[in-house]
Amino acid sequence: MIARILSTPIPAKAEKIPAGKPRRIAPDVLAAVLPGPGRDRLASGEVLAVTTGQQPALFTGPLYTIHKALSAIALAHRLEAERGVPVVPVFWVAGDDHDLAEANHAWVLGRDNEPAKIVLRERAHEAPQLPLFRELLGADIKAAVDAFDAAVPESECKPDVRQWLESSYRPDTNLADAGADALNRLLGARGEGLAIFRAHDRAAKRAAAPWLLRALDETLADGLTPVLVEGRLGRDRLRLDGKDFVTRRSNERFTRPQLEQIAAETPERLSPNVLLRPVIEAALFPTLAYAGGPGEMEYLQDSAPLFAKLAVTPQARVPRWSGLIIEPRIDKVLTKQGLTPADFDGPPGALEARFAQADLPPQLAATLAELRKDVDAQYARISGEVEQLDPTLERTVQSARNAALAGTNEIEKKLIASLKRSQGTVLSQLARARAALMPGGKPQERVLTIASFLARYGGALLDDIAAEVARWAQAL
């Protein structure tokens, strides 16, 4: 059993969601959607959509990928019930992203309840920045799945999770398609109607090509266009240079007719930057709202000029659901120590030091505080008198004051260290709770993968999270 799912709202206000105008989805767009209930609904006639998206990653990446998908599902269900028209949740898999360092790993909670990083492989710094759909998993993926198996504790749910990962992350597929397939198996086939859109698919690129070509005429604040082309050094931004376009890193030159030819023959070589992506998304789908994180809310706002110049109606910005999985063992520690997850939102060791400091005998703690107060007061008096007699000695007085205070602090520091050693059980419990709630000092949802928790608790976990996300959607 999962103890509880705790919502941790993103501090941003959702925009008013427009009425929207249902329409049919173009064949090329449908061709890039993976089979499932979501695709069937998109192909059924005139529809509306709620979208979200993320670059693919090993074992679906951090938890917030799942949180985004469930947010789009819950919001689409609410809007469909309110408006009486089909509203389909769509997940945009950004397989043309080239940041392998963000996508090549997954974090799990290991058998020792410490975070463990599983890495597919690294990319050499000088290697071409290939989009993720060109990163074949190859033999490395078996080692990654084996590492997951070795790291995660045994449970009755674990074999099913390994089978899920092995079915999607195969040596003969690429990282982008593997991530899309894993999401489709996990959420697309559950009946919620989530449509998994492979934005890197050639058909999807054909559908996006008209807007990419029009966006070549737009120059952003950094002096570059919002369009990238795959060249000698991989995916590369284009800048206008006279009548031609030049890549930022490789300095390859393209004429407009050459880029038009690429769009017609190998459209997968062209892709939007982060500001253009939501514009193309809203052009391809009749999108009411986008459910995203804090950074994406800013990107959408910054995309406003591109929406206007390309004559595309923007979608409403809706901060996605954010939350924590609090396992029973962690909940027990929180309850016993009178803590909340927010207490771990600080530098590692700070909470532990607070616990040790609280165990100082009250009389000793008061005496140390009084001693510091007296040192300050007495040296302040000395400083005033010395300044009148010989101002050049002021620095000497201050050095002596600081040394006296340092001595007092050192006594307290060593006492706290001694108490820490005697509080081994409590401090180890706090360390385990920190590893689960704030691994590496970052929020759980930005680090740990859903696979880590599914291996412990099974598919019922998704139901628990989905129920909490549904409550969030109703309260918007």
Helices and strands, with pairings:
Layout: E1 4-7, H1 27-31, H2 37-42, E2 48-54, H3 64-83, E3 87-93, H4 100-103, E4 105-109, E5 115-119, H5 140-151, H6 158-168, H7 175-188, E6 195-198, H8 202-215, E7 227-231, E8 234-241, E9 244-247, E10 253-254, H9 256-265, E11 270-272, H10 277-284, E12 287-292, H11 294-302, H12 304-309, E13 316-319, E14 323-326, H13 328-337, H14 350-358, H15 362-389, H16 394-422, H17 424-437, H18 450-457, H19 460-475
Parallel strand pairs: 2-3, 2-12, 3-6, 12-13
Antiparallel strand pairs: 1-14, 4-5, 7-8, 7-11, 8-9, 9-10
Helix pairs in contact: 3-19, 5-6, 6-7, 6-18, 8-9, 13-17, 14-16, 15-16
What can you see in these coordinates?
By secondary structure, the chain is of the alpha/beta class. The protein has 2 domains: 4-206 and 269-321 and 445-475, no CATH class; 328-437, no CATH class. The protein contains 19 helices and 14 strands. A 5-stranded parallel β-sheet has the order 6-3-2-12-13, with helices on both faces. The protein has a 5-stranded antiparallel β-sheet with strand order 10-9-8-7-11. A two-stranded antiparallel ribbon has the order 1-14. Helix 6 packs across helix 7 (175-188) and helix 14 crosses helix 16 (394-422). The radius of gyration is 28 Å and the shape is globular. The model has no long low-confidence stretch (mean pLDDT 90).
